[in-house]
Structure formats: structure tokens, C-alpha cells
Specification:
This protein is an alpha+beta fold and 206 residues long. 49% of the residues lie in helices and 14% in strands. It is built from eight helices and four strands. It has helices spanning 3-10, 25-35, 55-64, 69-73, 90-99, 105-148, 161-168, 199-202, and strands at residues 47-52, 76-83, 152-156, 174-183. A four-stranded antiparallel beta sheet has the order 1-2-4-3. The longest helix has 44 residues, at 105-148.
Length: 206
């Protein structure tokens, strides 16, 4: 078994965490240096992260998450946001390609125009879907890199997004794709892994 396969099989959604296991900003920075390599549509890099370690703010998030204990016991709570207006940064993001001569001015202008036109033509629902899609891709990478660094996580959707936005002063430009609790799992609290469908039930070939 390869190290990656082992990592996949060892990853579990932790329901409880050990206390007094702080995560340093240096460790987070190392994780995010890998996470930034996640693919995104048109390389727009829609995702923004808010890392919460302050105990008082965590308790406010716990209240917004229906009182779930893992929000309290986690070393950190991470909010994964998707930027609905990421397409507006297309010119700035692709400017380096132009400056390095990788694309011509004509190619650059067309690239930016096509990207902006796609998002504006398809409208608000598409912009919201894209924000969540791309943030979710990034979140999965975060979970795997965190596990590789020895940290356990649990992706969550059981929270009131409006209350979370109010606590963290998040603007309507962003959709909250996920909340992730993170720390060292209290293994004795772990339940057996849930049923997984056989491959034949969720894969078809044409």
C-alpha cells in the first residue's frame, strides 16, 4: 500500500478532540502552502479561509452550530469560504502570464473577457455554485494535507450560515461552503466507519 493510500484509509471524521493541543500559525502556513496548489476553475482561486482559535469566538461558533461539542473541543475551527465574485480578479490573476510573455496581449484580453463574460452571463446562481464547488475542492485538499501533517478534521454543514457570518463579519460576497473542526482526535470516542457503497453502485462506464 502506498503512503497516499494509507493516508486516505486513515482519514476519519473526528467527532471529539483532545484538549490543549494548540496548532501554531507556522503549521497552518505549511498546510496552506500545499492547499494553494488546489485546482480551481480558470485558476480564479475562489477560496478564502478563516482560522479560528480564540476560545470565545469558538464558543460563538458552537452556538451557531447547534451546540456541537466538537466545535468546543477542537483546537481550531476553520471556515471555508467561496468568493462569488472571484471572476472579477481574472485580469490581475492572469497578468503574470502576460508579463512573462507566456500569452500575448490579445490572448490575455480574450482570456479575461471570456472568463468574465461566462460568469456574468450565467448569473448569480452559477456564481454561487462555482464559489461552493471550488471552495469544496480546496477544502478536501486541506483535510488531506492536515492529515498528512498529523492533524484530524471533521467537515461540517450543521450550522446556521447567517449566524456564522454575523460572528465573523463575513460579507455577502462569500458563501460558506464548509466548517471544519481540527485537532487531535480523541480516538476512544471514535465509532466504526460508516457503510460505504460498493464501487459498482456509484460508478458507471459508457
Amino acid at each position: 500500500m502506498t503512503e497516499f493510500q494509507e493516508l486516505i484509509k486513515e482519514r476519519r471524521s473526528a467527532s471529539n478532540f483532545l484538549k490543549d493541543k494548540p496548532i501554531s500559525q507556522k503549521e497552518f502556513s505549511e498546510i496552506f502552502e500545499m492547499v494553494k496548489l488546489t485546482p480551481s476553475a480558470f485558476n480564479l482561486q475562489h477560496t478564502k479561509y478563516i482560522v479560528v482559535t480564540d476560545p470565545e469566538v469558538k464558543e460563538q461558533l458552537r452556538a451557531a452550530a447547534n451546540g456541537q461539542y466538537k466545535v468546543h473541543s477542537a483546537s481550531a475551527v476553520i471556515l471555508v469560504l467561496g468568493d462569488k465574485f472571484a471572476y472579477k480578479n481574472s485580469a490581475a490573476i492572469n497578468e503574470g502570464l502576460l508579463m512573462l510573455g507566456i500569452v500575448t496581449k490579445q490572448e490575455y484580453d480574450l482570456m479575461v473577457e471570456d472568463t468574465v463574460s461566462l460568469y456574468e452571463t450565467r448569473g448569480e446562481n452559477f456564481q454561487r455554485d462555482e464559489a461552493i464547488r471550488n471552495a469544496s475542492l480546496s477544502a478536501m485538499m486541506f483535510i488531506l494535507v492536515a492529515k498528512e501533517k498529523g492533524w484530524d478534521t471533521c467537515p461540517m454543514i450543521g450550522f446556521d450560515p447567517d449566524k456564522v457570518k454575523k460572528v465573523l463579519k463575513i460579507s455577502d460576497q462569500y458563501e460558506i461552503a464548509l466548517m471544519i473542526t481540527m485537532g487531535k482526535e480523541r480516538v476512544e470516542s471514535r465509532k466504526p466507519r460508516g457503510y460505504r457503497k460498493p464501487v459498482s453502485e456509484f460508478v458507471s462506464y459508457v
